Amino acid sequence: MILVISYDEDHTLDVVGRLEAAGREVVRFDLADFPAQGVINLDYPDGGPPDCTLTAPTGSASLADCRVAWWRRVRPFTVDRTLRTARDQGFAASETNQALYGLFHGLGCAWINPPELDAIAQHKPYQWETARRVGLMLPRTLVTNQPERARRFVQEVGVGRTVFKSFLAHADAWRETRLVRPEDLEHLDAVRYAPVIFQEFVPGADLRVTVVGERVFAAEIDASATSYPVDMRTVVDEARVRPVTLPPALTDALLRFMRRLGLVYGAIDLRRRPDGQYMFFEVNPAGQWLFVEHRAGLPISAEVAALLARIDEHGPERATSSPSMAGSTA
Question: Domain named ATP-grasp: which ranges (predicted)?
Answer without folding.
Answer: 128-309
